[in-house]
Amino acid sequence: MQWRQADNDGKGWLKRKASAIHGFGKWLLYGWIVLHLLYITVVNSVSVYDSYRDFNKQPRSAAWARGLEAWLNKPALQVYGRYTGAETGYGFFGINVRSNGMLIGECNGTAITPDFHSFETSLRFFSMGNSLTDDFIKPGAHTEMLSNYNDLVLKNIAVTLFQRHHCMDTGIAISYNMLDFPMLSAVRHGATPEYSQVKLISVNYSLNVYEQLSRH
Amino acid sequence: MNNSAGINHAAWLFFFRVNVAGIALLHFLAIQPDFADLYSYSGYIYPDIMDLSTDQVSFTLVRLQEWLAQHHAGISYESLLWICRIAYPVSLAGLLLGLLTRLNAIIALLLQLLLIKSIHLYEYGVDGYTTFALFYCCLFPVGRAYSLDNRWRRQAGVPEAGAFLFLLKAHLSIAYFFSGFDKVIGPTWRNGEALWKALHSHNYYSLFSLDFLANTPFFVVSGWLTVLLEMGYMIGMNNRYTRRYWLAGIVALHLFIAMFMGLFFFSALLIVLNLSAYLAPYVRQEKLQPENQGNTWWRNVSA
Fold this sequence. Notes:
The complex is a heterodimer of chains A (about 220) and B (about 300).
Chain A: H1 2-55, H2 63-72, H3 75-84, E1 101-107, E2 110-112, H4 119-137, H5 144-164, E3 171-180, H6 184-188, E4 196-206, H7 209-215
Antiparallel strand pairs in A: 1-2, 1-3, 3-4
Chain B: H1 9-30, H2 35-39, H3 47-51, H4 61-70, H5 77-97, H6 101-117, H7 125-139, H8 162-184, H9 187-190, H10 193-199, H11 218-231, H12 233-237, H13 243-261, H14 264-278, H15 294-300
Helix pairs in contact in B: 1-5, 1-7, 1-14, 5-6, 6-7, 7-14, 8-11, 8-14, 10-11, 13-14
């Protein structure tokens, strides 16, 4: 009987303390929720500030933004933001809608473009082209390493295009072409609403060893 | 039964789980015809080249392969890719059905991050939303509502999930506020130019051209409506008198984005998140047992 009484006392203790344990857990949850929402707010505040300064071609010099950014770049917080999805900024199409374009290859005078079976993939490829060429249209310093990397990616795309289209040539050119459409105010004043192509960057890759060597 | 505050936690948790998992699954299936183009060494950007510009915060397929090789568990890139290509939709299906819910949610989240960061140059807005939605599936008690897991539980009751609902609503409020704020601080959303430009971005699908509205106030008014809907979200959605109209406005906004910009999965996910937070919790249930809803749930639900 004694061990049963002891057992019941133990369970009774747990039952008595259950609300406290439950209450403590609830406060932990509430505290985490506040911190999580604060993290999201800070990420987006810094992002809005940076996009505003970039749009107005001003330096990102505010001490509060730089301080918060340094805090957000701490490894533990980066991992936290990544695995909770809290690192996502929500300034889609803000502060301005960027100009878009497309990657076009050329082989033997023929324009060639990547062909996809699904619209979703073409959308992703289109997003990739934009992010790759962001460096060319946004203000700021362009490091040599970044330029070399972008060149490598473009070369990769060019080689794949070359292979996919069975290009019968010794070289392939690839270019990123901005597709410009007249502004709303221009169309209202009589401009023709049709696209024009502006070649932003163009690179030629030769598969001829002698041509490659002669360049160096 | 709705609780004393009129919130139907079973409804919103179930709606959230099924639709987040379903949309993530459909989104992944949508790229299957071109999967090799995105992920393989026969694609447009080779995985190791893609990896050069990835941060070190989370694993990519290439980095995971290297890590496994270092720990004497070497596996080819193609085999690892196939494992992830099968495991991810399987975990999403498990999450959708509510089978080993939390485990499948965690696996789905980790694989979603692994797969999307492996092709980070191809990433766009919907991926960030998918990540946090899957994270919330790990955190919220979504497996306690109309799930296969409930068949093995002795007590199948939906726990009080008010804090989690608050978190979802607050997250959406912050997201929409900053989305609107980032638009209004520039001139182009105020004068209609941004909307005009967005609709003429190449490669965006459009149901039909809206150029015939160029000489009307449509683009200016729509730009301002977008900004006001987003910045006023926190107040409009959380006021019971304006909630249904604001929700209708937000759903209409995302339907417009789907129909005139072709961002189908982005729009679908955002609509689901909004309905999970602001419609499903207010669904009335009449005299239903918490365990045996079955088909009767569908008959009795009313918004």
